[in-house]
Amino acid sequence: MEKKLFKGAEYLITEVTKDDVFTPEDFTDEQKQIAETTEQFVQNEVLPDLEEIDNQNFDLVVKHMKKCGELGLLMIDAPEEYGGLDLDKATSMLVAEKIAPAGSFSVAYAAHTGIGTLPLIYYGTKEQKDKYLEKIITGEWLAAYCLTEPGSGSDALGAKATATLSEDGKYYILNGTKQFITNAGFADLFTVFAKVDKEHFTAFLVERTFEGVELGPEEKKMGIKGSSTRQVILNNCKVPVENLLGEIGKGHKIAFNILNVGRFKLGAAVTGAAKFALAEGIKYANERKQFGRQISSFGAIKEKVSDMVAHIFASESAIYRLAGLIDDRIATIDKSAENYYELYQKAIEEYAIECSITKVFPSEVLAKVVDEVVQIFGGYGFIQEYPAERFYRDERINRIFEGTNEINRLLIPGMLLKRAMKGQLPFQQEAMKAVDALMTPSFDEIDDSVPFAQEKYTLQNLKTLFLVVAGAAAQKYMDKLVHQQELLIALADIAIQIFAIESALLRAEKNIGRVSEKKAKLMEAAVKVFTFDAVETVAKAARKAAFFTEEGDNLMMILSGIRRFTKYDATGLLQAKRLLADEAIEAEKYIF
C-alpha cells in the first residue's frame, strides 16, 4: 500500500495513524551500524580531547573533522556521483544525534555538514561541485556559512555586505563584515551572502585564500568554547564570477531553505545532548549520598529523572517522525530529473513549519534537562571539574542560533495562515467545524480498554482547541494578525505541543506490539508523563490567546471550551513516573 504523503502542518487538521510515522524503532541494521560507528568515534577519540578542545586547540578539531571524513560522516548528504553516500534524512539526523555528546566539536561538525556543505550540494553548478565538493566531504577542506552581520541577525535580508562586478567582468568585489561565523578560524570555504549592487541578495563561494578575506579575533563565548567563532571581514574581496552560487537576487532561497535543514538537524543534535546529560546526571545521583542514602532513591530526584526521560522521548519521537515525512516525500522525486535539487528543496520546504517545531521543542527540552542535571549535581554542578557546568553553558546557544526560538515561533502560525490563505490547507472550514464542536455539548465515552484512549481523545480535543483560538484570532485581526506577536507565539506553543504529543503517542502505539512487555509499559508511562505536562502548557497558551483576542461573552465561551478541551485523565501518573525513573536510574541512561 502506498504511503500517504502528508502536507506540512496537516497534522493540525487531520487524524494521523501509527502507520503514518517513522520511529527510532524502525532504524535498519545499516543505520544502527552507522550510529554505532559514530558513537564509538565520539567516545574513544573526541571525548578524551574535549578539555583541550574547549581550551581552543583547534588543531584537534581539524584532526577529528578529518577523521570524520575518513569514516564517511561528512558525506552522508552528498550525491553519489561526487563520492557521497546520499543517505536519507533519518540517517543524517541519527549521526547528528550521536555526534552531540562531543560538545563544542559537535558544533563544528554540524556547521560543516549542514549550513557549510548543503548550499553547494543543493545550489552549486557542476563545475562548482567538481571543484569543491570532494574536498568538503572528505575533510580535506572545512566549510563555514556567512549570513549574520553585526546589524542583522534574525533580519537576514537586512544585510549590508555588498558585491560589485569589476570593470573587466571577471570578479565580484565583496565588502562587509559577517558576525558569529562558526568554523571561521579554520574554514577553507565560506558561503557568503551579499547584495549585488546593494540590492540583490546573493550567495557566493569564497575561498579563505582569496584576496581581501580577513578574520576577526576569536569571540570570548559563554559556552561552546571549543568551536571557532569569528568575524569574517570582506575588504575588497575578489571573488571570481564563476563562484556566484545560485542566481543573482535569489540568495534568500538558499539562506532560508538551508536553515530549514539546519533547524531540523539542530533538533537532532540537542536530543543527543539531552540523552548524554541525563545519563551523567543519573550516574552522579547514584554515587552521591545524603542522609545515608543515594540521592537517586529520593522521590524528588526520581521525578526529575522521569520528567527528563519523558520529554526526551517526545523530542526524539518528533525528530524522527519529521525525518520520515521528508524522506517519504523525497522518495517520490525522480533522481534523474534535471531539476532534482529544486524539487528536493521543495520537499523539505513543505515541512518548514515542522522544521521550526523540531528546532524549538527539542532545544527547550535540552534546556530543561541540563537545568535539572545541574540541580542534581547541587553545588558541584557549579564547578568546572564536573560535566554539568559545561552542559549548562553549552546549551544556551541552541535557543539562539538557526533562528531564535522566538523567530521560529512566529514562523509557525505565520506560515500556517499563509498556506490557508492560498488554499493549500482547509483551515477556515476546519475552524468553523471546531467552533461547532465548541458549541455542542459532548457526551463522549472513552473506552479505556483501547491503548492510549485517553491520550487520543485529549489529542483530538487539543486540535479542536487550536482551531478555535487560531480561528478567532484570524477572524479578529485578519491580515494584521502578523503584527500580533504575543498572540502568534501563544498559538505556536499550542501547535508545538500537539505535534510533540502526537509524535510520542503514535510512536508508542506503533511499537507496543513489537517491543517487550516491559518496554511497552515504559513507553505507555512516557506518553502519560509527557502528555500531562504538555496539556498544561497548551491550556496556559490557549488562555493567553483567548485573553489576547476576545472579551465579553465570546471570551467566556472560549475559556469554557479551553477548560473542556484540556481535560486529561492522567490516573496512574505517579506510578508512571516512578516506573520511568526506576528503570533509567538502574540503567544509568536514557532507556528508549
Characterize the structure shown.
This protein has 592 residues and is α+β, with helices and mostly antiparallel strands. Among the domains are: 10-141, Acyl-CoA dehydrogenase/oxidase, N-terminal domain (Butyryl-Coa Dehydrogenase, subunit A, domain 1), CATH 1.10.540.10; 145-245, Butyryl-CoA Dehydrogenase, subunit A, domain 2 (Beta Barrel); 424-587, Up-down Bundle (Butyryl-CoA Dehydrogenase, subunit A, domain 3), CATH 1.20.140.10. It is built from 19 helices and 10 strands. The chain has helices at residues 29-46, 50-54, 58-71, 89-99, 104-113, 118-123, 126-138, 251-287, 299-330, 340-349, 352-377, 387-395, 405-421, 427-439, 453-477, 485-511, 517-549, 552-565, 573-587; strands at 143-146, 162-165, 171-182, 189-196, 200-207, 213-215, 229-240, 244-245, 289-290, 293-294. Strands 1, 2, 3, 4, 5, 6, 7 and 8 form an 8-stranded mixed beta sheet that branches. Helix 1 (29-46) packs parallel to helix 4 (89-99) and helix 9 crosses helix 17. The mean pLDDT is 96.
